[in-house]
Structure formats: C-alpha cells, structure tokens
Amino acid sequence: MAARAVGLLASLPLCAQRSQVLRPIHRLLSCPRTVAAEIKREEQSSGSVETGSEGRTPKKTFSEVQKERREQAQRTVLIHCPNKISVKKFLKYLSQHGPINNHFFYESFGLYAVVEFCQKESVTSLQNGTRTPSMGTEAAIPFRSRVFNLKTKNPSNPTSEQSRVQCSIHAPPSSKKLLELLCYAESIDDQLNTLLKELQLTEENTKLRYLTCSLIEDIAAAYFLDCTVRPFGSSVNSFGKLGCDLDMFLDLDEIGKFSANKTSGNFLMEFQVKNVPSERMATQKILSVIGECLDHFGPGCVGVQKILNARCPLVRFSHQASGFQCDLTTNNRIALKSSELLYIYGALDSRVRALVFSIRCWARAHSLTSSIPGSWITNFSLTMMVIFFLQRRSPPILPTLDSLKTLADAEDKCVIEGHNCTFVRDLNKIKPSGNTETLELLLKEFFEYFGNFAFNKNSINIRQGREQNKPESSPLHIQNPFETSLNISKNVSQSQLQKFVELARESAWILNQEDKDRPSSSRSQPWGLAALLLPSVVNSASLAKRVRKKPASERIKSLLESIKSSGPENATSTNGKRTVSTQA
Ligand code: GTP
Ligand code: MG
C-alpha cells in the first residue's frame, strides 16, 4: 500500500509534490493509513487525552497511544535549519528520500524542523545521503544520528523565497498574558478550561517529546540492541504543562523476550552475561554507561549528570535541540504504570484535567511547588490529592483504584516486583460519573476540603478512596497507589503543609467572598481563578488575620498593585524561552 503511494507521488509533477497548500493531497496519496488519524488529531484540541471523542469512537488505551506515537517518532528526523529558508524547497529537497507525512518548525537555540516521513526507510536514505562534517582543528565523532544540520550551498546569496518560517510555540504564555485571558473569561468554569487550553502540551510538543525519546533510544541501542526508551510522567499522563521535564524510562526487559518464546526442542539457549550483586547495581552500571554515551556522542545532549545514588538512580541532561530537561531512569516500571493510571483518570471526566492544571498552577504561583527537590509538595502528590478529592464527591466523579482493579480482566493483570498493579486499561469499560457539579464549585470545595483536612491523623489513599489512619508520623501522608507501604509525600515538611493549608483556606475564602461582591461590569481586575493565582503578599503567620480584616476587592487591588510595581511582566527569558512564575 505504502509502496504504491510512493509510486503515485513520484508520478505527480514536482510542483504538486511540494507545496504546503497541497499537503492534504500529498498526505492522501502518500500515507493512506495514517491520514485519518492525523486529520482527526489535528482537529482535536491539542494536548488533550487521545481517547477518541465523546462516546462514539472507542477510546484508545494508553499502550495503543504509546505504540502509535513511538512508531511515528521512528519515522521522524530533527533538522537544524538556517534562520531563513524556503519551506517549499526544503520539503522538495527532503522528499527525494520519500514522501513526508508531517512537518513543523520551532525555535530552540536556532531554527529546527521536525520532519515525519511516511516510511522509516526514508530516514535511512537521508542518513546515507548525509556527510559527517570536517571540523578544521577539532575532530568530529562520526555518530550517525537522526539530528541533522542543513546548510545552504550559497549562504551569501539568499533567494527571495527564503523567509522566516512560522514556528510552533513550545513555551507557556507569560503570567501577564494568562491573567489577561482569565480576566476576560465568562465564568470560573471558563477560566479553568482556558488555563488548561493555554498550558497543556500541544500536539507538536508531544511529538517532539516522543521524538526525543526515540533519539535517545538510538544512542542506548548502540549498547543494548532492541531496547526501548519510553516517556512517562507528565509528558504522557495528560497532566503535562508546556515546559515540563521529560521523564524517560530505558526499558531493557523486552530484549530477547520475543526470540526466547520461539525456541523449541530440548535445548534452551541463553546469553552469557556478566553478573553484579544487586538489581540496583545493575541499574547504576547501565545508567553510568548510557550517561557517558550521551555525554560523548549524543548530539545536543549537554550538562549530563549521573545521579546514581538517588533512591531511583537517573541520568539528567538537557537536550538542546528540543529544549527539554530530561531525566533518564531504568528499572522504574511502576512509575510507568502510575503514568498509565493517571492517564486513565485524566480521560474519565473532562473536569479532572482542568482542576488538576488549575491546582498545580495555583500551587506554583504560591511557591508551594518548585522545580528543585526539597521539602515541598510535588505535582505528582497534588494530582493524587485532586483525584482523591474527586473520589470523595457524592456521587463520586472518579472511581477508586480498587474498583478499577475489580473491572480488570486476565489481560490487565500486572504484578511488578511483587506489587499488584492491576487495573482495567480499557477506558470503554468504565462507567461515566453521574455527578454534574461545576468546576467552580469543585475548585471552591477542593480548597475547603483540604483547608480542613485532618492531616495530623489521616492519610490520603486513592486505592480505597477514603481517609485512613496515618501509618507513620510524616506531616503529609499520601499512600503510594502501588507500593502501598510507601508515602509519596514523605519529604513534605510541617511548615510547607501548614502553608498549603493556609493558602487553601484563603483561596476558599476569596472564592466565597467573590460570590458576594464580584463586580459584574469590570473584567479588567483579576477575579475568580485569576485572583487566586496572584502571588500572595501576605506571609503565612499573618494570613488569617489579614484575610479577616480586608474586603476581597481591596485585597485583590493591592495585590495587583504590588505585581505592577514589581515589573512589567512577571516573566523572565532564558535561552530564548519564556519562563513564568506559574511554571510547574
Ligand atoms: P512534572 O512536575 O510536570 O514533571 O510532573 P511529573 O508527574 O512528571 O512528576 P516527576 O517528573 O517528578 O515524576 C515523574 C513520574 O515519576 C511521576 O509522574 C510518577 O509516576 C513518578 N513519581 C514521582 N514522584 C514519585 C514518588 O514520590 N513516588 C512514586 N512512587 N512515584 C513518583
Ligand atoms: Mg516530570
């Protein structure tokens, strides 16, 4: 089928092969099987859970999405381009190697193009037609990756067709822009949905994440043939925000499984391997060597740090071309399962992601979360708190993990390192909730609920969906859903928890006050969710007192003034990328 399509394309006049205007025709002729999915994906709101829409289309499972995206990434290349190029000529030049299914440009230390071919063979063809640069005084390591540099043969003589190309955006909007958008929303529900739309990963950003994993996999495969590098965490669990890190899992378990099943007869062949005293040591050795590889041979992999003595050993690095901060782990299969579970929760009800994004953003705005590890709460823990809260509604908006386990069939069975990680993976088998509460109510109730939660004696437990006695004395106890004896928020200090509680109470109070005195005519002042995202100027000790004293409208006004006086925009720029105070 694909070969026939190539033939058809080759017989078209060149002008018809290349233009962006003709991209849909090009696609229809070139990649028949992927077209429908592609068009549908583009129509969907970007970054949303890829589950198929409203009921009629069967929802895709997490592994189906991963498989599809992975295969797509393997046919894709990353090209560093001159700042001004003719897109038409560029695409025509590349289509010598085969039909192109999709492309986009973005900026990160220069202009990059992500080009997805229809067939994997086109990538090999491009690699075969590419030279290793001669570096003058320096020596190049001849590593043949899928990251290329495009040079123009005559840079001093640009043609009129060479112009700045349109780039897709991979950074969240500035705080100022976000606040403006929220102020002009119709309702608090609208505000939460706007925030989700603005901050969620775009289709292009998601593609770039899978591509980056695929590029790292190429490097790891030099040692471990047939290994897989899979994204996990917020890049894939549907709660990722533009700018979030890229968590990767080097999966070595699949190696050899397939061929081992095939052996027949009286003999069993095994690879001769080296042994080390423990699984942990094996993980450390593997990550150490991959870290070296990334450092020495990985194009654009910079700042490689081997953090091998952590509870979960990892290699951290920046992938310059994509702009992602990457954490590579191995032997971390439970985290992959957690990502799948969160993906399911995110897909079950459209209110879940809107609420999680808002709470994460609220927490970041008040420095309750941070990008550096410490005694503060993590985004992962916050997501668990929202899920738990939604399980506690009447009727519940989300099912408990135990009930998802009850719905599982034999194929869903999953035990990792002795921990039962079984739950139903087919979203279509889970009954939607009958709860119709608005996002506004849920937001308010979330703050009320956790502003008054008995953290001193109770633990949060999404497996059973009810409070339980705390098994240990950490200030905040959120049971790890799979390794049930562990607390995912063990790091959180009493003072951080106290700050969370006070801010939650304050936010509930602001929302309640606003019901009473929100000026309906003026949308230029922060209100609703926007008011909650303003950095709190009060310190936690005097918080309660001040809240009682000042009317909400006055407080919001003074907060706004304080922001204005602290600078024109609460955003800084690093490496040409925007960073905002609301960044998670
Ligand atoms: P971001 O803050 O957007 O990166 O969210 P994230 O969910 O990706 O969090 P993070 O990068 O810190 O961790 C990646 C994944 O590792 C999470 O999604 C979880 O699956 C897992 N994880 C993180 N922290 C913990 C923890 O304390 N315990 C367990 N069991 N898993 C964790
Ligand atoms: Mg992450």
From TrEMBL:
Domain PAP-associated span(s) in chain numbering: 442-485
Domain named RL: residues: 61-130
GO MF terms, alphabetically ordered: ATP binding; magnesium ion binding; manganese ion binding; poly(A) RNA polymerase activity; protein homodimerization activity; UTP binding
Keyword DNA-binding: no
Sorted UniProt keywords: Magnesium, Metal-binding, Transferase
Gene it is expressed from: MTPAP
CDD domains assigned: NT_PAP_TUTase
Gene Ontology annotations for the cellular component aspect, listed alphabetically: mitochondrion; nucleoplasm
Ranges for region Disordered: 40-69, 560-584
Domain Poly(A) RNA polymerase mitochondrial-like central palm as annotated: residue spans: 188-346
UniProt name for this protein: Mitochondrial poly(A) polymerase
UniProt cross-references to InterPro entries, sorted A to Z: MTPAP-like_central (IPR054708), NT_sf (IPR043519), PAP_assoc (IPR002058), RL (IPR041252)
Cofactor(s) in the UniProt record: Mn(2+); Mg(2+)
